[in-house]
Amino acid sequence: MIAVTGIGEVRPGNDLAEPLADAIAAGPGLESGDVVVVTHKVVSKAEGAVVELPSDDPDAHRVLVESEAAEVIRRRGDLVIARTRHGFICANAGVDRSNVEAGWAVLLPEDPDRSAHRLRLRLERRFGVPVAVVVSDTFGRPWRRGLVDVAIGFSGLAAVDDHRGRLDSHGNELVVTEVAVVDELAAAADLVMGKASGIPAAVVRGFVVPPGEDRATDLVRPPDEDLFL
Amino acid sequence: MIAVTGIGEVRPGNDLAEPLADAIAAGPGLESGDVVVVTHKVVSKAEGAVVELPSDDPDAHRVLVESEAAEVIRRRGDLVIARTRHGFICANAGVDRSNVEAGWAVLLPEDPDRSAHRLRLRLERRFGVPVAVVVSDTFGRPWRRGLVDVAIGFSGLAAVDDHRGRLDSHGNELVVTEVAVVDELAAAADLVMGKASGIPAAVVRGFVVPPGEDRATDLVRPPDEDLFL
Known about the structure:
CofE-like fold; alpha+beta; homodimer; 2 domains; five-stranded mixed beta sheet; three-stranded antiparallel beta sheet; CATH 3.30.1330.100
């Protein structure tokens, strides 16, 4: 896990791929099979997915959350747990006011898989090696305190490493072990990125990704299979 | 992240600390501040937290799950989501039949924090450096497919890295950012351990753990604050 420093501030409409690639080139470089994890915040900023919150409108944040929510799942006081139009269930439908200029909010990218794929193509062209890209966000979860980073978009790997049918070390068939490797990659990358340090990317080297070309929506459990909706 | 190989099979009642320390010594060694992540399965086995499931009793697994559950939260067909007596909410109250001899099930350790603390003391004595120990398990979660590793016991670090009151890169105060670092460490370690490969431990080096002496139950969200019970 290698933090990618020196990307600098990304402003709405800026190209992200070039400063990201420059920072990687000045740091760890890229090797075949590397996974580049990028926090969605810089992706959203580059794509212009930011909204000004008028300081004279105390309801602006709430209205924005409602407009980003495809469905409100739970509400308690100011806290809204919502399903986004992508299918993710998270606080405030992904509307976030941290690590952005005061008075602004960052939204989720419109299509985080496409964002990941575009970054991947640019990085592969620049460095000449096949890589995977994961776009991460920080989600809470039921039952456990604290936030963890998860994948909201990716390109170049499978969503889960499906161990079903493989044998464990005792020769038992593994029947239900689908590991959400891409979420574990996002969580691992957060350890070197950090919330306060403003490092928006990391390179994971030496991990053999599960091959595939899934989409992040493949990680969303179908509502009719979900016991907690 | 360094996988610890060569621990060998842990049988009920075996000492775990010695083969773990031997394997670490033959591999990465331990440096001050390292985090040793150990899957609970070998911890439970060493502590004798295994149960034989009579092959002539098809209900034995179900009865065992019920007896391990402090409270059944949801049930669908054979799937039981339960709160364990520790407070964790997980499938089958932690009863697991993978990576154990056929006809046996592994339970959660009685007190995974104490298990972690004992391992930590043995490792610190052997290697003469302060370390942290995390005992992990593989949990599903609502809304998202796939499993991720989380911490069910630990010693030598805080449960969450509390960013509240710190400033982000834009000078905004971070108000609700409590990062479940210990869960991210467990998830990261799973990337090098794997489910089918039977590697039960990993060393995380170079990560500055949040200082503290929390317990894993500090990660359990109080039920009256939980919107999904």
